[in-house]
Amino acid sequence: MGNNNNLLEYILRIADNSLILGHRVSEWCGHGPSLETDIGLTNIALDLVGHARTLLDYAAEVQNLDKSADDLAFLRDVRGFKNCLLVEQPNGNFADTIARQFLFDSFNYHFYEALQESQDAQLVAIAKKSIKEIAYHYRYSAEWMIRLGDGTDESYEKMQAALEQLWTYTDELFRMDALDEAMLEAGIGVDLKLVKIYWNERVDHILAEALLSRPKDAWMQKGGKQGMHSEHMGFILAEMQWMQRAYPGLEW
Description:
The protein is an all-alpha fold.
C-alpha cells in the first residue's frame, strides 16, 4: 500500500467515526427527552458532521480522482467505511446514547489532542479547529453520566446496563493495526496505546464520580476499522445515502 493510500485510509477512519456518529446522534432531533437535551444533541450532531465534511474534503484531495466529500459520504458501500463499531450502535434509550457518546468522546478528545502533533499540516489544522467542540462534547456526555449514574435507582440501572452493553466495543478504539503503525512511524498518526492510558484515567474518574462500576474486559469486538461492520451499518447507510443514490448527481 503506497503512502498516499495509507494516508487516505487513515483520514477515512477519522472522518467515518465522526460521520456515522453524527448521523446516529442526529436521529434524536425532535425526539429528545427535553428541549434542552434535544438542542444539545442536535448541536453535537452538527459538529460531528462538520468535522467529517472537513476530513472528507481532505480525503478527496488526497485520493485525487475528481471526487468530492459528498461522493465519499454517499457513494461508498458498507465495506468502504472504516469507522469503529462503537459509533454505529443504535441510540437505544437516552442512557445508551450518553454511554456511547461518553466512551467515544473520551477517546476522541485525547486522539485529537495527539493529532495536533502530526507532521501532516492539514490534519494538524483540522485537529486544532475541532478540539474545542470535541471538549464540549466530552463535558456534555460526562456531566450526563454523573447525573444519571448518581441519580435515581432507575437512571443508575439504565446507565450501568448501557455501559455493560457498549463496553465490548471500546477495545477497537485502541487496537493498533498495520496502518496505525505505519502512520505512527511516518510521524502522521497517533499512538493509540498512549491514548488508551489517558482514556482509562478519564473514564475511571467519571465512573467513580457517577457511582458506576467499570465493566470487566471480556470478549471485545473488532473489525470496523477494516470495513467489517455490524448489522446496524447497512440500515444507517440505507437511510443516509438514499437521496444521492435515488437521484444521482442531484444538486441543490
